[in-house]
Amino acid sequence: MLFLDGVLNIMKPRKKMFEVLGEEMAKGRLLARRFLFWASLMLWVFFLGVLVLSFTPVTGYLLKPLTMKEEIRPVDAIVVLGGGVNQGRYLTSESSHRLVRGVQLYHEGKAQKIIFSGGFSQRGGVTEGAVLAQEARRMQVPSENILIEKNSRRTHEQAVETKKITNPLRWKSVILVTSYSHMKRAVLCFEQAGFKVYPAPADPLERYAAGPIERLDLFGKILHEYGAMIYYRIKGWI
After folding, report:
1. What is the pTM of this model?
2. How many CA atoms lie within 13 A of 212 on its CB side?
3. Distance (Å, rounded) from C-alpha 237 to C-alpha 41?
4. Which strand ranges, in their side-by-side order, compose the sheet holding 196-199?
5. Nearest to residue 96, comparing CAs of 76, 114, 81?
6. Contact 115/165 with Cβ under 8 angstroms?
7. Which residue of 19, 143, 156, 220 could cross-link 237, Cys pair, CB 3.0 to 4.6 Å?
8. What spatial distance separates the first Cα and last Cα of the chain, rounded to whole Å?
9. In this predicted model, what pLDDT tens digit does every residue of 171-212 receive, in sequence order?
10. The pLDDT value given to residue 99
């Protein structure tokens, strides 16, 4: 009996240890199940969100608050905002569309001067304004009618730096050319800088986004614009 009592006394701490270990393992399994449940739920929500954005017109509804109606009239200058330069120092598709629209307006006689705005591109290592101006010359815009703003890195700076160029010339009214989804923020920035602004969106490809890839790409642009609008309002730039 004494021997059995001794064995039991020895086993009691081990039994308690196994019980504690079992409880910890049970808690671990419970936490793992909860994690898998929430992870699966989030993945399903993400998947459904992608389907909704890709195959429904929801992006079109999200785009509407950002849109501005085109308003064209004779002004002091046309301002074309750069939309990027790629690694080969060529204009991105967004910049190209803006360039074409601005040059069209120039040849239609809406202004005698055209300003290309955009600082150094991280990809191209050149100023966007300079590349835009170079391409405009190839499209029969005389050099003497081109002005280049090349110090800006964001929309707010484009408005401020453009104002520095136009102030000595006493230019107050501009036709502003930029992408369809970017137009509202750009107009607000230029109005804040003191311009009378008439919007002229470039080829509004955003309006024609019909395929799933195009709609997802458009959603990214819309999300960026909403975030930028909030940030700009906090900073007092619009």
Report:
1. 0.77
2. 6
3. 39
4. 146-149, 114-117, 77-81, 173-177, 196-199
5. 81
6. yes
7. 156
8. 90
9. 999 999 999 889 999 999 999 999 999 999 987 666 666 667
10. 95
The C-alpha atoms of residue 23 and residue 15 are separated, in whole angstroms, by 12
238: its two tokens = 């619009």
> Using CA atoms, how far apart are residues 137 and 135, in angstroms rounded to an integer?
5
Q: What is the pLDDT of residues 44-61, one digit of tens each?
A: 666 666 655 566 667 777
Q: What is the 3-state secondary structure (H, E, C) of the chain?
A: CHHHHHHHHHHHHHHHHHHHHHHHHHHHHHHHHHHHHHHHHHHHHHHHHHHHHHHCCHHHHHHHHHCCCCCCCCCCEEEEECCCECCCCCECHHHHHHHHHHHHHHHCCCCCCEEEECCECCCCCCEHHHHHHHHHHHCCCCHHHEEEECCCCCHHHHHHHHHHHHHHHCCCEEEEECCCCCHHHHHHHHHHCCCEEEECCCCCHHHHCCCHHHHHHHHHHHHHHHHHHHHHHHHCCC
Give the span between the Cα atoms of 24 and 18, in whole angstroms: 10
Q: Quick one: which of 196, 190, 182 has its CA closest to 237?
A: 190
Burial class (CB in 10 A: 0-12, 13-18, 19+), 98: buried
CB 120, CB 127: distance < 8 Å: yes
Q: Which of 17-26, 199-208, 226-235 is predicted least confidently? A: 17-26
- Write out the two tokens for 199: 């919007």
Q: Which of residues 27 and 101 earns the better pLDDT score?
A: 101
144-167 as b/e: b if 16+ CB within 10 A = eebbbbbbbeebbbbbbbbbebbe
Share of the chain above pLDDT 90, in %: 50
